[in-house]
Amino acid sequence: MTPGEPRPPSKAAFAFIFVTVALDMLALGIMVPVLPKLVIELEGGDIARAAGVTGAFGFTWNAMQFLFSPLVGATSDRFGRRPIILLSNLGLGLDYVLMALAPNLAWLFAGRVISGITAASFSTAVAYIADVTPPDKRAKYLGMVGAAFGLGFIVGPALGGLLGQISLRLPFWVAAGLSLVNAAYGLFVLPESLPHEKRATFAWAKANPLGSLDLLRSEPALLGLALVAFIDYVAHESLPSCFVLYTDYRYAWNERDIGLVLAAVGVATTIVQAGLTGPAVKKLGERGALIVGTSFGALAFAFYGGAPTGALFLLGIPCGAVWGIAAPALQALMTRRVDPTHQGRLQGSLASIRGIGGMIGPLLFTQAFAAAIRPGAAVRVPGVPYLLAAALLVLCTVVSVRVTRPAASA
Fold it and tell me: Is 375 exposed, middle or buried (0-12, 13-18, 19+ CB in 10 A)?
């Protein structure tokens, strides 16, 4: 093997990606319990106003994903996955430093802009897995990447909640350190996955947000699966947008409570992703796993939105964990329909869809929540964001059934 050539697929390569995603998600998870609390503090304790600001932050982050992810995906197809993952982790580390120092909402806003541009490691990791696995085993290994995601959220939120009780700024410093260590780790040990002969030429027409979506229109089944992904992404936005605000308002959970519950979510998600995805896909097929997963997601959100007590809210966590089998199955179905030279472009296109969903979701759910708790509200239903998400996942299940029928997939 000549210097600079990609290493062949190996267990070590999968381990590198697993650790990279786990550390990245650990850094992100650390700040989850405290960012909305910091917004509340900077807004003088007004939760309804903080909900509006949080929604605007979510919109901005996802707008940056929409604008820049296709460029990142096309660049990784041209120059390889390794440099994108490393630059992403470096950018996130510097962004957390900025947010740790933020004296006001304007600085936090700048931090969310930078984070939205640089947060590309997960999508590139998915393309990395697609590079080095045969189609029939992708769902299994994508489930392992999802388990790494969950592992980061086991430790991250719990640690963030504990650190947040010391100082709301401390979790950002720890997240910065983890991201920078992750970048240094990858610099020495992460191999490239995309051989030079499989690299695509770079074209701006394919790297812009609208041009990247042309790939998804290349066949009806792929476009239908993209619609499923879009609905799923929008529903998912109810969690990061409203979880801290909702549980603070309805159950009076503090940073520690929120961190521990998010850690429990991470444990459940990791168990399902690592232990259930492979067997579920083997028994149900990718189509069946997708449909079952979205159905359980709808049930989870119904629990979240309807639970009058924190204890009943927790009953939705196992259902939400089973929802996790849908994403790897959906990814596997889509990667089968794309040429190997365009896997990065596919992930960039999906990130653009995620960005569009992310622009809609935070505004939709936070404004619905703010309207439901505002003084003088005609109907006070604080769980309305999650009831809306449940309805979206019911729709997602129906669309999944239709677009994955054998006639539609042919």
Answer: exposed
pLDDT tens profile 185-211: 778 777 777 767 676 665 565 556 665
Segment 241-263 mean pLDDT: 85
In terms of residue numbers, what domain contains 76? 11-191+218-409
d(CA 262, CA 154): 7
Residue 1: inside a domain, yes or no?
no
Asked whether residue 203 is assigned to any structural domain, the reply reads: no
Cβ(43)–Cβ(157) under 8 Å?
Answer: no
pLDDT digits (tens, 9 = 90+) for 102-158: 888 888 888 888 877 776 566 777 777 777 777 777 777 777 776 777 677 677 777
Residue 341 falls within a domain, yes or no? yes
**Total number of domains in the chain:** 1
CA distances from 397 to 385, 386, 394, 409 (A): 19, 16, 5, 16
Tell me the C-alpha distance between 307 and 273, whole Å: 26
